[in-house]
Design goal:
Length: 467
């Protein structure tokens, strides 16, 4: 208790401690390739009653950004609390240039990037940080930080793991390019082959909550939904038919958008069961739950798109995603915040809620979000930067956004485009102000160059940098 009190004093969280009766449970849920496709964010055609209820009982954020518009570097930023360029995992960890339908042999897969690359083992995850405060940590879902043993969650601060270490799997066979990919702990397991992966992660999450109901726990639940399958023909239906039939009775069940929406509804139902279990066990008020998408929507054109671009792009539709936080009694219900916040804030927020001190000697790029979510202080964040190889560079400084991108092909083959937007007036990035505001654009490029220099000067880490 003395340790907890000291840690709370250090993190300035006495107000939180008096509202919560014990060290809170932490549940951090991530969806995969989901844009603002939730009814509570205005996409009325999506059936997401449980996430909508979470938003009604908590805070919804409209200006939350991830660190990249693709899976791996987005997740590495949140897991470590550090820019991907600092932690070294700034690109995808995947076997590039493989067509759908390719099947690896076991030995061929064993030496491929997906098996040999991972998040630098010197990096600390939020699991590592929470352990110092006595938390029991689980990860169920898409780890995506490498799948050689040294990269798997049990070696990275987590006590329990069921999921896949690579970027994407078939939701039923759990294979990627023909390679079995579902781990139980450190071992590949075929025990659950055939079980829809959203159902599998839900089942494991519910069991973990029950088993640990008398002690503080952290449940990291990175769903692979609604990401497409990675090793099959592109049109395979990766969701149980009853979700399609229940929610979209009038439309074709092979319609890609209907499948996408059904996958989101299956995930939403799983999240609803988690909340029901928290209520049943009396843990509802002792649990902080965070939810966001890892990047924007992948391709599917659904009629109420309001942001430009999607997965893989430097525009808002790739980088800005839905975020919801709920902690009854600590975070007010029914609030919407328009403050500028990012996934770099996740680790410091989990640590602060837990009363865990951040490790000394580690440079973090974010801050504790709780006072912002509570409406007590404005966000201290003024700027954010992105740099994805061969695709885009971007900076947001206050409400200004600079983006440089390759319009097609690979970077360098055609001239990059450079654009400037005033997000306060033009969140859809439709009115390019580059010619009208040359000084503003120069200012943003200068900030980007300074950030880039800082990243290059940082201790080199990760699978891609040459050191
Ligand atoms: Ca993703």
């Amino acid at each position: 208790m003395r340790f907890l009190l000291r840690a709370l004093l250090l993190t300035g969280l006495i107000a939180v401690a008096s509202a919560a009766s014990r060290a809170p449970n932490l549940i951090y849920i991530v969806s995969d390739d989901q844009g603002f496709d939730l009814a509570c964010f205005g996409s009325k055609q999506f059936v997401t009653p449980h996430l909508d209820r979470m938003a009604a009982e908590g805070v919804r954020a409209t200006n939350f950004y991830v660190t990249a518009s693709v899976c791996t570097p987005s997740r590495s930023g949140a897991i470590t609390g550090r820019y991907p360029q600092r932690n070294g995992t700034y690109e995808m960890i995947r076997n590039n240039m493989v067509n759908y339908g390719h099947r690896y042999t076991k030995s061929e897969y064993a030496i491929s990037p997906e098996m040999t690359l991972g998040l630098d083992v010197r990096e600390l995850t939020f699991g590592d940080v929470l352990r110092t405060a006595g938390y029991r940590n689980a990860c169920f879902g898409k780890w995506d930080m490498g799948q050689a043993r040294r990269f798997l969650p049990l070696q990275r601060g987590f006590d329990v793991f069921v999921g896949h270490g690579n970027n994407g799997i078939d939701f039923y066979t759990h294979e990627r390019y023909g390679a079995p990919s579902m781990f139980r702990g450190n071992r590949l397991s075929l025990d659950d082959k055939g079980t829809y992966s959203t159902d599998l992660f839900r089942r494991e999450a519910l069991a973990f909550i029950r088993e640990n109901r008398t002690r503080p726990f952290c449940l990291y639940l990175p769903f692979n939904a609604p990401h497409g399958a990675s090793n099959l023909e592109k049109d395979s239906v990766q969701v149980p038919a009853h979700y399609l039939a229940k929610y979209y009775p009038g439309r074709s069940h092979t319609d890609r958008e209907v499948i996408y929406a059904g996958m989101i509804s299956a995930m939403d139902e799983a999240i609803g069961e988690i909340f029901a279990t928290l209520r049943e066990l009396g843990l509802d008020r002792d649990t902080l739950v965070l939810f966001h998408a890892d990047n924007g929507r992948n391709g599917a054109r659904i009629d109420d798109i309001r942001l430009r671009g999607g997965k893989g792009s430097g525009f808002e539709g790739g980088l800005r995603v839905p975020f919801i936080a709920r902690w009854p009694g600590v975070i007010p219900a029914g609030r919407t915040t328009h403050e500028f916040i990012t996934a770099l804030e996740i680790l410091p927020t989990l640590a602060a809620a837990a009363g865990a001190a951040l490790p000394s000697g580690v440079k973090y790029d974010g801050f504790n979000l709780l006072p912002v979510l509570q409406g007590k202080t404005p966000s201290p964040r003024r700027e954010m930067f992105w740099d994805f190889p061969d695709a885009y560079q971007a900076a947001r400084v206050d409400h200004w956004k600079w983006v440089s991108y390759t319009p097609r092909g690979r970077r360098g083959e055609v001239p990059d485009k450079e654009e400037l937007y005033d997000l306060a007036a033009d969140p859809g990035e439709e009115k390019n102000l580059a010619a009208a505001q040359p000084q503003k654009m120069a200012d943003l490029k200068k900030r980007f160059a300074a950030w880039q220099a800082e990243m290059e000067a940082a201790e080199p880490r990760g699978p891609f940098r040459n050191f």
